Amino acid sequence: MMKTFGEKVIDFNSQLHYLGNLPEGFMVLNPYFDNPETMAVMKDFYHKFYHDNEERKFIIGINPSRHGAGVTGVPFTDTKRLESICGIKMESARTHEVSSVFVYDLIEEYGGPETFYKQFYINSPFPLAIIRHVKDGRWVNANYYDEPALFEMVKDFMIDSLKKHISLGLDTSEVFILGKKNATFIQKLNKEAKLFDRLTVLEHPRFIQQYKFKERYQYIDRFILTLNNLL
User: Do residues 89 and 72 touch, judged by C-beta distance below 8 A?
Assistant: First the structure.
């Protein structure tokens, strides 16, 4: 029997490992193996919203944060919105993630998670959380492009991950990229691997929430028009 889109995502996440090198002071977190409940709620999410074989458009983030997909296993989804909007409760953690707030405001304006996820799939070129050690001894979120050496070390893994995402059943005629700096690096990967025909760049949700909060609903309107190719 042919696997559904959701079952293919679950297989991808279940086999996800990064075994490559990292610069000193960086570490990769794999939520699917760090917390058994993450694997369980991730499966519930994809069975609920992706239980079909419909082709979807691809929205690309940077890499998961510790408080969003780094806990829930679902991109741009903290435990608050996983429960309140997606109807899936996580018992072992309670997280709030800034980008998740904007994304789910967008999803609600679009028509709700059933409508949105029927048409779109969100993930990242580096689909695991990256953290870095800072001077005061703390570990903080990091982006795959924070250091040139880091990008070079994870580049091949990211190209392979993007190819696997595409194989789930994604429309490659246009991809939507969150974050202008992220887009610069995705363009490099696309030039090398020829993955997508057209790259459309949108502001990153974290940027909007932090610096353009009063204008967030204008951004949501523009996101919806862009995602529906109405601009």
Answer: no
